[in-house]
Amino acid sequence: MKKLIEQRNDLVDEMTKIVNTAKAENRAVSTDEAERFDACKAEIANIDKTIKMGEEMENLENKVVEPKSKMTKEQQDETAFINLIKEIKNADTPMTYGANGAVIPTTIAKRIIAKVEEICPIWTMAEHFNVRGNLSLPKEDESNTNLAMTYADEFTDGESGKVTFGSINLGEFLGRCLCKISKSLINNSQFDIVSYVVDKIARKVSKFLEKELLVGTTNKIEGLSGVTLAVTTEKATEITADELIDLQEEIIDAYQANAMFIMNRKTRKAIRKLKDGDGNYLLNRDLNAKWGYTLLGKPVYTSDNMAEIGAGKKVIYYGDMSGLAVKVSEEMNIQVLTEKYAEQHAVGVLAFVGCDAKVQDTQKIAVLKCKAS
Known about the structure:
Order of helices and strands: HHHEEHHEEEEHHEHEHEEEEEEE
Strand order of the largest sheet: 7-15-12-8-11-10-9
Largest sheet: 7 strands, mixed
């Protein structure tokens, strides 16, 4: 570009010299001078055009066309889910439609399950069995078992013992969760609709499952209501340090490693005021513990689903929660209802999960009950 500008300046100087020479000699330019003047003028025009084109090119960026990357299965499912809620049809991300609406792909359901496990530790710690239909699990009946090892003498017969096994049967109970989403939120381009739905459903499912695992429902999921190891308080509305020690000692040492306390937050508040014989608090704030507190060296988890201290109430569970067997008979099934709630200017997201839960190993978990009034 610099050379072109220098050439242009030389041509301008040459044209100026032709005109000034003719003026100095008081004459008209000759034919040759006129032709040269016009040639310089034309060359300058071409140079100016070239310079202008170069300046325009400097303001333009090279556009690189990236090849269209293939979406992963997760990205396809998420895009399909968003398109379905927004009622956008896209041939690249088709959905499966059932009688009650579109069925969401399993990758979205897995995100919800992962969130449930994050929110509900009891669900995570239990022993899981992912099967359909009824499931029968063996359970050793210690009351009718007399198998033992004894000393032996040569040429004498040994006495045989027996191991008696009972069983627990896990059936199928279907739980349902409905989440309504405002279309105003859906139409907001800045709103992360997938994360919202995952979080909303996961919290509702977690609340339901935790309640069923801890408390249970008559003729439905039994959960920890089937715990047989129990300590009963001497008073209906008070818990003592000795009773907490008795509860902990109900679990044999082999199952103490992963043991934990589960109680209501108000129960924890009452226990925080208990002291041992040396005046030390039993319940300690521990930033290294899973949930911020330890009691008798074990982590304390609080749940609003646990009963508060009161006559006849089951107020604290202690032990290794893997003693609870959970059968998931139906993986989470999610459907989007785009028309049912149209008059409410909303879209419904319906989630189903089938499961059952019972205590499988009675030696792993114990309960503290308040004395009946």
